[in-house]
Amino acid sequence: MIRVTINGDARDFPGELSAMEMMATLGLPATKVALERNREVVPKSTYGDVIIRDGDQLEIVHFIGGG
Predict the structure, then answer these.
(1) Separation of alpha carbons 22 and 47, rounded Å
(2) Where are the domains of the chain?
(3) Of the N and C termini of the chain, which has fewer Cβ atoms inside 10 Å?
(4) Are 8 and 18 in contact (CB under 8 A)?
(5) Along the 67 residues of the chain, how does pLDDT read in single tens digits?
(6) pTM: predicted TM-score of the whole model, two decimal places
């Protein structure tokens, strides 16, 4: 079990997972969000490679279109 903080809220996951897997678990389209892990922006091209670990601090920003 790992615990991470997402946008200030603690969340538990069964174990370490990639950023892409975490997005899928949360029901977020990876193409429409930006991810910051431990105060560093994570490039979208690396979401499948970046591993989310116990204690990570995450910020997820949703892009919303409009006019």
Answers:
(1) 9
(2) 2-62
(3) C
(4) no
(5) 999 999 999 999 999 999 999 999 999 998 899 999 999 999 999 999 999 999 999 999 987 766 5
(6) 0.87
